[in-house]
Design goal:
The chain folds into two domains: about 50 residues; about 250 residues, 2-enoyl-CoA Hydratase, Chain A, domain 1. Helices cover about 50% and strands about 15% of the residues. It has 14 helices and eight strands. Strands 1, 2, 3, 4, 5, 6, 7 and 8 form an eight-stranded mixed sheet that branches.
Length: about 325
């Protein structure tokens, strides 16, 4: 453990001791606690800035990181969830519906992870089946019909790769979403709020604006999968994370995403309200810009944006 890690543990211990003392004596020492918390935030920010991509992976996967429920409650009014793909069943790994965002009627679609084991089982740990992507597409086409902007939140390790999912056309469902979203005649904003894994993330990621929380990740494969395939050793995931260029900073430089959303010191789980407010503010900014465009211009710009990702060199 480094000196900063040791100091962080000591500060957390002191805060706990002061809280117990205040509770037992009634003496107000909130000023001392505020000072310690400020120092704690500064240390966490320093540790994060000095750490590699693997630390971002761990923060993106934190069990207390805000999920779709936090964003629905903090960003939308009168949200009504809609269910089913009208073909097979309702997939709990994707939540979608309609509501008001700053008074604007929108369609909201999000990968859904739980914060405990029971809910994660219900949500299949955020790994959608093909019917989840077909539900998402159904809601997008409905949004297009009624001229509602679409807000997508991305947080998945990847699409579910079970036998049943493959039998029901997992690859086709993802490919269909990519095709339809590229030409959807309504504004689309996608935000990576945690993990953005492979095609399972990209199926909600073809948008006019793609945003990322600063400690989220977005990659063609997980570091563990990359290490297992290319390095022949899954324990070298921390090394593979460096090669994948999966951080928000990397992807902004590569022009895969359009903006980075700030998080509280140490990660989004340390202040959920601040995180949700930051996401709402950034969506509001970009939504205002793209809603001002003519719809044909918007779709043309979206197409050109996708075509310009990546560089070919001989």
């Amino acid at each position: 453990m480094g000196s900063l890690d040791f100091e962080l543990k000591e500060i957390e211990r002191k805060i706990e001791e002061i809280n117990k003392f205040m509770k037992s004596t009634g003496i107000d020492l909130s000023g001392e606690i505020d000072t310690l918390k400020k120092r704690k935030d500064a240390i966490q920010a320093t540790i994060l800035s000095e750490s590699g991509p693997w630390n971002r992976v761990l923060i993106a996967r934190h069990k207390n990181r805000p999920n779709y429920k936090d964003y629905v409650e903090g960003m939308l009014e009168d949200f009504m969830e809609l269910h089913g793909d009208r073909n097979y069943k309702d997939d709990g790994a994707i939540v979608g519906g309609i509501g008001y965002f700053n008074g604007i009627p929108v369609t909201f679609i999000s990968h859904a992870k739980g914060k405990d084991t029971q809910e994660n089982i219900l949500r299949n740990f955020g790994m959608p089946h093909p019917e989840g992507y077909r539900k998402a597409l159904r809601l997008m086409k409905q949004a297009e019909k009624f001229k509602r902007p679409v807000i997508c939140l991305i947080d998945t390790p990847g699409a579910y790769c079970g036998i049943g999912a493959e039998e029901r056309g997992q690859g086709e469902a993802i490919a269909r979403n990519l095709l339809e979203m590229s030409d959807l005649k309504t504004p689309i904003i996608s935000v990576v709020i945690g993990e953005g894994g492979s095609g399972g993330a990209l199926a909600l990621g073809v948008a006019d604006r793609v945003l990322m929380l600063e400690n989220s990740i977005y990659s063609v494969i997980s570091p563990e999968g990359c290490a297992s395939i290319l390095l022949k050793d899954s324990s070298r995931a921390d090394e593979a994370a460096k090669y994948l260029k999966l951080t928000a900073k990397d992807l902004l430089e590569l022009k895969v995403i359009d903006d980075i959303i700030n998080e509280p010191a140490g990660g989004a789980h340390n202040d959920i309200k601040m995180t949700v407010d930051n996401v709402k503010e950034m969506i509001s900014k970009h939504l205002k810009e793209i809603m001002a465009k003519d719809i044909n211009e918007l779709v043309r710009d979206r197409y050109n944006k996708i075509r310009c990702i990546g560089v070919y060199s001989e």
